[in-house]
Amino acid sequence: MGCMDISPYRGLCGFCVSVFKWLPVVVISGIVSWSYYAYVVHLCIITVESDIERVGLLVGYHVAVTLFLLSYWRTVWTRPGDIPKRFSLTADELDSVEGSETDEQQRRMLEQIVIDKDLPVAMRTIQGAVRYCEKCAHIKPDRAHHCSVCGSCVLKMDHHCPWVNNCVAFNNYKFFILFLFYGLIYCVFIALSSLKYFLRFWTGSMDGHGHGKFHILFLFFVSAMFSISLCSLLGYHIHLVLNNRTTLEEFRAPVFRRGPDKEGFSLGKRANLAEVFGDTWWRMFFPVFSSFGDGLTFPQRFSEDPELGQSRQGGGTVALVEQHPPLVVKT
Fold this sequence. Notes:
A hairpin with a 4-residue loop joins strand 3 and strand 4. This protein is elongated. The chain has helices at 11-21, 23-47, 51-77, 91-98, 103-117, 173-203, 210-242, 247-251, 269-277, and strands at residues 132-133, 138-139, 145-147, 152-154, 159-161, 166-168, 255-256, 259-260, 303-305, 310-313, 316-319. It starts with 10 loop residues before the first helix and ends in a 12-residue tail after the last strand. A 3-stranded antiparallel beta sheet has the order 9-10-11, with no helix packed on it. Residues 305-312 and 314-331 have low confidence and may be disordered. It contains 9 helices and 11 strands.
């Protein structure tokens, strides 16, 4: 189950909020259910006269709707990515960090906690400090963010999508892209295959009776409308995948020891694509998890050596923006 079972609200208020958050999913399910009835019954069975055309449309439709629904429900029910317990801060550690007198003292304390716990974190705040969440009481792994809707931090958070009542993040981002992709194919298939009958009903050259005519006319309008919106949204996320960014990183560049770097995780178009979809071509198009990594660490355009305060790219060495004094490493 996704992050929809975690809510910052409690009691009757929490129950009402949880029910309300499911409404968009119910709406999507209702539209798909109606479109199935309208397409299969009123278009294919009642309106289409050719048996060959009817079979072809039914086969194509069921392939498209199956892949679309599998991708959609995997996006809905897959947990986006929980923060491991080893990133948690104890009550004493959190009190010490929150009670720091200066930003420099807090920064050094967080750096020491990261070293003591041996946590693989490269991202920093704009002030150069290790990122942590005071609400969830843990160090934030790279690319993790706190979702105010779910009330928790999630790994490689992209955004919270009300249409799936879940965060789109590390574990279900591939499923979300496939949901958009197969949703677009589903809508385009319906729009193109119903266009001929839509024009005939619209111009009056074909007899239609009451509700059957309404279903086919409305089916074309709805599928065409959703095709436009899904096309733009899919195009935007393809852009993000090819540049290895999340929606949050598109608006605010990730910050490292060397400073902000919007291309910090970009490894080239092909490698960026493989990081989300995997390197097995046939698995790329099916809603099965094939993304690289564990959601905690990610390859970077520059590899950093925190002890030397340097970053390397292609064998060269680039000095970081800010040098930090050495920390005490416990053995």
